Amino acid sequence: MKPVLSSCAILLVATVTAACTKTESSKAATEAQATLSDADAAKVADDTVKVWTSIDAAKIKALYAPTVVAYDFVAATLPKDRAEFDKRQDEFAAAKLDGASQVERKIQIVSPDLFVMSGTWNMTSSTKPANNGGVRCTDVFQKAEQGSWTIINEHCSPVPKPA
Fold first, then answer.
1. Residues with Cβ < 8 Å from 26, sequence gap 6 or more?
2. Are 136 and 70 in contact (CB under 8 A)?
3. Which of 7, 119, 129, 157 pairs as cysteine with 105 (C-beta 3.0–4.6 A)?
4. What is the Cα 75 distance to its own chain's centre?
5. What is the pTM of this model?
6. In this structure, how many other beta carbons lie within 10 angstroms of the beta carbon of residue 120?
7. What is the pLDDT of residues 99-128, one digit of tens each?
8. What are the boundaries of each domain within the chain?
């Protein structure tokens, strides 16, 4: 009987320890999130939007981490490498989407160094009306060691047409 009791006691201690560790981790995550305010994340997001709408390819490319993983709203596949990603950003800038406006936005703070921005956009072009349309995007921002924010993951797709 003693081995069963010992096994039960060990299991109970392990369960309580795991629960306490999980509670401490949740508390730590909540405290960490508090170090990046909603206003700070919104400022980074707003500054990013200004660059996207600048139609300056070099500035747009600089927003992204060297190892970004990104689905473009006009390409069916992930870029094979950074050169292909950069070419797609050149094409984005050349599309002259100078009337891009954010329709909705949600920011989720994951940690002091990571947040997610999701939203929908109404994209318009004064010079190429064929480029007009709705787009939805999710961008994951990560704070670099030197303090700047870069996009490490992006997924954009056309907004589905109403049925």
1. none
2. no
3. 119
4. 19
5. 0.75
6. 13
7. 788 899 999 999 999 999 999 999 888 887
8. 1-34, 36-158
